[in-house]
């Protein structure tokens, strides 16, 4: 029997904090890209966070395996994770943080499609297919309606490229979810899976940055504060808090609540970075968020509808 609790005031407060932290990671990378490339920053933060996670597992005497079949699966998850963040880093070079955070958080749609194909227990319902349709329409609308002053310009082409890279990153995030859910990785401690992802990401992205001339750093206080924030708060503390909450609270409710992240990201991008928000992007983003919430919250929605219909029938019988 599932002992996980509905969200309480503590969980809601933690989720607001986590979503704000996750939204800030794109803002921080975009704001400091003139001091170091986003790809290099993500590589550094992943390495530092991996060291933190490994230290924690060693303290608990539950170190992750570094050889064998499980480690190979972990390495594969790490490869997907690494290239997801490589695409995020490149997307931020061409598009705004607001756009990237919205398109990145379409990942649950791709995860749902992959799980539908791989697990009989994860078949999509009619309501979920409807949510996917709404999300796809939202994505298309946001892609195909540039601002009135941008249509056909190099800026519009650059934005479209960045948005496409962010969407591809979401596909890889969804693929990572499917891999973890359908293999032995689902039986591991969350810290072990996180370590594999962070360690492989650090190795790959730092190597790519070194070979592509992106490994330079202009020392500055904003850069070092951002790296500390990204490493300790985002990639280490927030993910551990998220995994802990998944063991205590209902996953569906947590998943729906996590979609505060793109909303907060758009707001922060507008106020902190001056990101332009066109009407087309806002309408498309609303469609994306509504569609994803329908996909993720469909079990709760369907249960609520059944309860409502049952109560209506009971009322009709009593009257």
TrEMBL record:
TM regions (residue ranges): 7-27, 39-59, 71-92, 98-117, 124-144, 164-182, 194-217, 223-247, 254-273, 279-301
Primary location group: membrane
Highest taxon of the lineage: Bacteria
Entry-linked InterPro entries: AA-Vitamin_Transporters, EamA_dom, EmrE-like
Sorted UniProt keywords: Cell membrane, Membrane, Transmembrane, Transmembrane helix
Keyword Membrane part of the UniProt annotation: yes
Pfam hit, one: EamA
Subcellular location: Cell membrane
Domain EamA residues, every copy: 10-142, 161-296
Protein name: Permease of the drug/metabolite transporter (DMT) superfamily
């Amino acid at each position: 029997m599932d002992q996980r609790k509905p969200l309480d005031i503590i969980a809601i407060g933690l989720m607001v904090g986590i979503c704000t932290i996750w939204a800030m990671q794109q803002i921080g990378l975009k704001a400091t890209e003139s001091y170091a490339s986003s790809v290099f920053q993500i590589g550094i933060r992943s390495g530092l966070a991996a060291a933190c996670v490994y230290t924690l597992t060693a303290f608990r005497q539950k170190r992750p395996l570094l050889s064998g079949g499980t480690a190979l699966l972990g390495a594969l998850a790490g490869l997907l994770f690494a290239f997801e963040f490589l695409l995020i880093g490149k997307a931020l070079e061409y598009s705004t943080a607001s756009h990237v955070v919205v398109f990145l958080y379409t990942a649950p749609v791709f995860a749902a499609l992959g799980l539908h194909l791989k697990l009989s227990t994860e078949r999509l319902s009619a309501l979920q297919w409807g949510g996917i349709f709404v999300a796809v329409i939202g994505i298309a609308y946001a892609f195909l309606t540039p601002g009135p002053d941008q249509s056909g310009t190099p800026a519009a082409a650059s934005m479209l490229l960045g948005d496409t890279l962010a969407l591809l990153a979401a596909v890889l995030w969804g693929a990572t979810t499917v891999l973890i859910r359908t293999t032995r990785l689902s039986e591991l401690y969350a810290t072990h899976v996180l370590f594999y992802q962070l360690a492989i990401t650090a190795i790959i992205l730092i190597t790519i940055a070194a070979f592509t001339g992106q490994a330079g750093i202009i020392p500055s206080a904003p850069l070092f504060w951002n790296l500390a924030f990204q490493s300790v708060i985002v990639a280490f503390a927030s993910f551990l808090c998220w995994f802990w909450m998944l063991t205590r609270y209902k996953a569906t409710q947590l998943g729906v609540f996590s979609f505060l992240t793109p909303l907060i990201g758009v707001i922060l991008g507008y106020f902190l970075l001056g990101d332009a928000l066109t009407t087309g992007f806002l309408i498309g983003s609303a469609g994306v968020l509504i569609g994803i919430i329908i996909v993720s919250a469909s079990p709760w929605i369907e249960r609520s509808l059944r309860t409502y219909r049952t109560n209506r029938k009971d009322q009709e019988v009593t009257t």
